[in-house]
Design goal:
The structure is a homodimer of 298-residue chains.
Chain A (H helix, E strand, L loop, with lengths): L13 E4 L9 H5 L5 H10 L1 E4 L5 H17 L8 E3 L6 E5 L1 H4 L1 H7 L2 H11 L3 E11 L7 E4 L1 H9 L6 E7 L10 E3 L6 E4 L9 H4 L10 H11 L2 E2 L7 E5 L4 E3 L8 E10 L31
Antiparallel strand pairs in A: 1-9, 2-11, 3-4, 4-5, 5-13, 6-12, 7-11, 7-13, 8-10, 8-12
Chain lengths: 298, 298
């Protein structure tokens, strides 16, 4: 397969234009919702859409309860799905939560979500990745700028830009407790990064990303074009962002933790192929290589 | 001298009530300005006051030019006044800039500043510390929560809470490029920290503070009382904050650097005594022990 988005090959960073649509459905399929015309236009232009108070307080309470339970259960568990902070033993993320937990499994199949994603991606979708993230108070570390697609393309073999990340805010996200920052419009450019991917890179990159890191000049250029937008909102808000939207977050020294549920829907027409790095694929709990099983909408 | 604010002595953190006024002048002295009644009341209640666009664009340009010049001159200088980032050789702060640079010397004597500080502190004032700070884009590190007074009291022998920090924003401070965060009302409480101060602590603490660090429980309590306020504003804004106001800042992964001029006026009636740690005082470039020379207003 031709590599439309080469990265980690050259010694010089490059910026390519996006070669894929942002919104895939058209006409009546697009018009039937759930998102209205303004919401679709905003997503298409900016590369993300924040839907405040998408989930009720009761739903948030239930999800938070499940998150805390998984947290406690995994506190001392040594499992590849449990990712810890680089400089401490604190849990940073737990992957594959939707296969371990009924509540999160149901959440991933919630038609309010899948119908929305299908409307934008113009096809059936499946869950490519599912994790819960916890950024503790006082010592939450930053997560540097990256395009999810860059990694998924190089390390997992996602061929095209036809996936959407969902982040459900489980705590209030203020401007000061390390909320997600996004660069509006950045999804229209592919920043080809320098360097070569080593074998089993994910074992360190999930703690702290050292590869697939965009260069300062490209980031400055993207911010000059689109500025920076901060996804602040109350617990229960849903952030959808296009797989190639450049995003990151600062650390969090406030006492207010920031936790969320994060999952990725990919189009069934965009199933993973061999990684474009030429290396062996990352494990299934990071990138689902069997879309057949968990097709969620029909 | 009795130690009204003991810290770094016990094994348990404690919170004491403030034993000093916040605003020292009264009656006609207070009423004559430059700050109006609302501004004084806001400062007294919150422990800080942000005056947007206090300096003109021309003045900011001049200060930025001087800052950049000092930066370039000191790039490879190995001097105690030049503090570097903990994990790189990047300059973090340059102390004593007002004694090295005519522009900053004039700034420290600017009556728009000294009259304001004298109004609040009810006496003549002198510059206790003067430095320029640079938080670079992409890799600016956080500065953890602290009360300036806690350090100045323990390590420099500042007897009472009768000093004010001034921060002049030289770049636009957005919510997302690591602006100063303050806890409103925190100046009314003294958080006594655990631990003992080692000899020459300042040599590492100016890069990364490990002592005089408030405990999580006290910080949580202060934030529950007062919330968190973020000092965002355009370049040229002036932030005044009371010496005991709890403050800190998150890191900055954005391309937008955050630099400022920071200086501290102390009341001539609050001159430094022997450090309450019992150790030898920090050098003069960090804490001016000779208020006679640079009395600025009369």
């Amino acid at each position: 397969m031709v590599d439309l988005y080469p990265s980690r090959i050259d010694n010089e960073p490059k910026i390519f234009d996006r070669k894929d649509p942002v919104v895939y459905s058209e006409g009546t399929d697009l018009a039937k919702g759930p998102l209205n015309r303004e919401q679709v236009a905003s997503y298409e232009k900016n590369g993300f859409l924040l839907l405040k108070n998408f989930f009720s307080t009761d739903e948030v309470t239930k999800m938070t309860g499940e998150l805390n339970r998984l947290w406690d259960e995994n506190r001392t568990v040594d499992s590849p799905e449990v990712i810890r902070e680089p400089e401490s033993d604190e849990i940073r993320s737990i992957f594959d939560a939707h296969r371990k937990n009924e509540e999160f499994n149901r959440l991933a199949r919630d038609p309010r979500l899948t119908d929305t994603i299908s409307q934008l991606l113009g096809s059936n979708v499946y869950v490519n990745q599912f994790r819960i993230n916890f950024k503790p108070g006082f010592k939450g570390k930053e997560f540097y700028w990256h395009s999810d697609f860059e990694t998924w393309h190089v390390e997992d073999g996602m061929p095209r830009m036809r996936a959407i990340s969902c982040s459900i805010l489980l705590t209030d996200n203020h401007s000061y407790n390390g909320p997600l920052m996004l660069i509006p419009g950045s999804h229209n450019y592919f920043v080809s990064c320098v360097g070569e991917t080593p074998e089993d890179n994910y074992k360190s990159s999930l703690k702290k990303q050292e590869l697939g890191v965009p260069d300062n000049e490209s980031l400055t250029w993207l911010v000059e074009q689109g500025g920076i937008s901060t996804a602040t909102g109350p617990a229960g808000s849903l952030l959808l962002f296009e797989c190639n939207t450049m995003h990151g977050s600062n650390g969090n020294i406030t006492p207010l933790p920031r936790s969320n549920v994060f999952f990725v829907y990919n189009s069934v027409e965009n199933a993973l192929v061999e990684p474009f790095s030429g290396l062996k694929p990352r494990p299934d709990f990071i990138a689902n290589r069997n879309p057949e099983t968990p097709v969620l909408t029909g």
